[in-house]
């Protein structure tokens, strides 16, 4: 059977509103699967909805945040964001965040496709320095495979989603001028 096609789209405010339910499900599933993406348990679906509604929709509507979705056979399988809200001295910079793939859809190239589009959108906006932070082995492997370089680690950066301990974050970057 041929592999399903991964379709990537940048959402406009109306389509973000329509997709919020599914995006909340994906965030909820990723956190419960152990992702360190800003939340700790208990984390219910209402808090996941609130994240998209209160923290993502306003900067997205203002044009300072891109939200991408990846669809497989018409089902949203993953998402990624690009924060363009840089200070005047950093207008060449953007921050990649919340690269989230629903667990049943992993290792099918969804995140790689999202990152290709993130980089394309960054180039189109003249943002050639991309930064991100990550705590997970899978995510670091993904970013390294795409040419992101390790810049350093910050110990005790974020509380673990499940346990009462503080984990390090690992800072990574990519200079798109180098390819
Ligand atoms: C990290 C994550 C986004 C990867 O998504 P994915 O769609 O499964 O990744 P892809 O299938 O596009 O993988 C691309 C490459 O990344 C690397 N990779 C991805 N998952 C990996 C894993 N579990 N172990 C090792 N390498 C991995 C591989 O090099 C892979 O290429 P390959 O499959 O040809 O070997 C996904 O596991 C996820 O959502 N994790 C939870 C959320 C998170 O931690 N996000 C990042 C923080 S912002």
Shape: globular
The parts where pLDDT drops under 50 for at least 5 residues are none
For the termini, the CA-CA separation is 34 Å
Can you count the helices?
4
**Helical content band:** 25-40%
**CATH class call of the domain at 6-129:** Alpha Beta
Percentage of residues in DSSP E strands: 25-35%
CATH topology of the domain at 6-129: Aminopeptidase
- Going across the major beta sheet, what is the strand order? 1-2-3-4-5-7-6
Topology overview:
Layout: E1 6-10, H1 13-32, H2 45-62, E2 65-72, E3 75-83, E4 93-101, H3 110-124, E5 129-134, H4 137-145, E6 149-159, E7 166-175
The structure holds coenzyme A (COA).
Coenzyme A (COA) is lined by residues 30, 35, 37, 97-101, 106-112, 134, 136, 138-139, 141-142, 145.
Describe the structure.
The chain is 35% helix and 32% strand. The protein contains four helices and seven strands; from the N terminus they run βααβββαβαββ. Strands 1-2-3-4-5-7-6 form a seven-stranded mixed beta sheet, sandwiched between helices. α1 (13-32) runs antiparallel to α2 (45-62). The protein is globular and about 40 Å long. It binds coenzyme A. The site of coenzyme A has 22 residues, from β4, α3 and α4.
């Amino acid at each position: 059977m041929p592999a399903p096609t991964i379709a990537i789209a940048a959402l406009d405010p109306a389509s973000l509103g329509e997709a919020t339910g599914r995006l909340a499900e994906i965030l909820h599933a990723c956190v419960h699967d152990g992702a360190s993406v800003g939340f700790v348990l208990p984390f219910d679906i209402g808090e996941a909805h609130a994240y998209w509604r209160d923290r993502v929709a306003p900067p997205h509507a203002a044009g300072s945040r891109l939200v991408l979705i990846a669809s497989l056979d018409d089902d949203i399988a993953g998402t990624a964001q690009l924060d363009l809200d840089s200070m005047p001295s950093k207008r060449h910079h953007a921050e990649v965040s919340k690269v989230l793939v629903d667990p049943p859809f992993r290792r099918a190239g969804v995140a790689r496709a999202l990152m290709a589009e993130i980089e394309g959108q960054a180039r189109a906006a003249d943002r050639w320095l991309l930064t991100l932070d990550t705590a997970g082995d899978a995510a670091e492997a993904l970013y390294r495979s795409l040419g992101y370089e390790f810049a350093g680690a910050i110990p005790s950066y974020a509380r673990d989603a499940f346990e009462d301990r503080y984990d390090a974050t690992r800072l990574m970057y990519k200079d798109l001028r180098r390819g």
